[in-house]
Amino acid sequence: MWAVIVNVITVVVGSLVGLLARNLISKKLSDAIMLGIGACTVYIGISGALQGSNTLVLVLSMAIGGAVGTALDLDGKLGSLGGLLDTLVKKSGRLGQSQGNIVQAFVSASLLFCVGSMTIVGSLNAGLSHDYELLYTKSVMDIISSAMLSASLGIGVLFSAVFVLVFQGGICMLAGVLAPFLGEYARGELICAGSVVIMLLGLNILGITKIKVADYLPALLIAPLLCLIM
Questions:
Q1: Is 14 contained in some domain?
Q2: Residue 16 falls within a domain, yes or no?
């Protein structure tokens, strides 16, 4: 769990740095930063998706996962959590409207930091063999990403550290249970599905689409299950 805690700390530190620098950054520069992050997110999604080898698994996992997530309204529930944070921040009276859209920032940052090959493989490696290298590498990337995101989107990025702790910590602690179901083939398809979800998030950040990305999170569970069945 130590590597997960380090990752959470880097997200918090990066977010605070971005918030402190936010008033020094013009809207034009902020928009340029967000476009850069969106483009890089799409690239990360495409490169990770290439790790899959069975297109049928990807199609079925995204279709079934999207249907399950929509039925459960996962995007709405994650957005409601962000809305609750928004209400708490406004009630505190310490931060105003200038802090940006907390819901958008929280959802986007949570998905960006938690849905990807480095998160999944790194958390599994940490839990199974105490190999923290991948999570430490991710931590360095996240401190930069969180700083740029919070500078553009506001304080909602800071709250995503809680989601990182729960999501990555859960995978790390359950690694021993998950390992038998995540062989090399299943892991590749899981990363592929997660990377497609990341790509959808990138398109949203670029402003090209308005997809309810969190509704596709069940695809990360469906993909390894389909591998076992097939």
A1: no
A2: no
Question: Phi, psi at residue 215, to the nearest 5°?
Answer: -65, -15
- CA geometry: angle at 218 spanning 213 and 223, to 5°? 115
Q: CA-to-CA distance for 8 and 163, rounded, in angstroms?
A: 9
Rounded CA-CA distance 132/130 in Å is: 6
Half-sphere exposure for 230 (CA within 13 Å, toward CB): 16
Is pTM beyond 0.90 here? no
Which residues fall within 8 angstroms of residue 66, CB to CB, at 6 or more apart? 215, 216, 218, 219
In a domain, 75, yes or no: yes
Q: How many domains does the chain have?
A: 1
Report yes or no on 24 lying in a domain: no
Runs of H (alpha helix) within the chain: 2-22, 27-49, 55-72, 74-92, 102-114, 117-129, 133-153, 156-173, 175-178, 184-205, 219-229
- Domain of residue 172 covers 29-229
53-97 confidence digits (pLDDT tens): 899 999 999 999 999 999 999 988 888 887 787 777 666 655 544
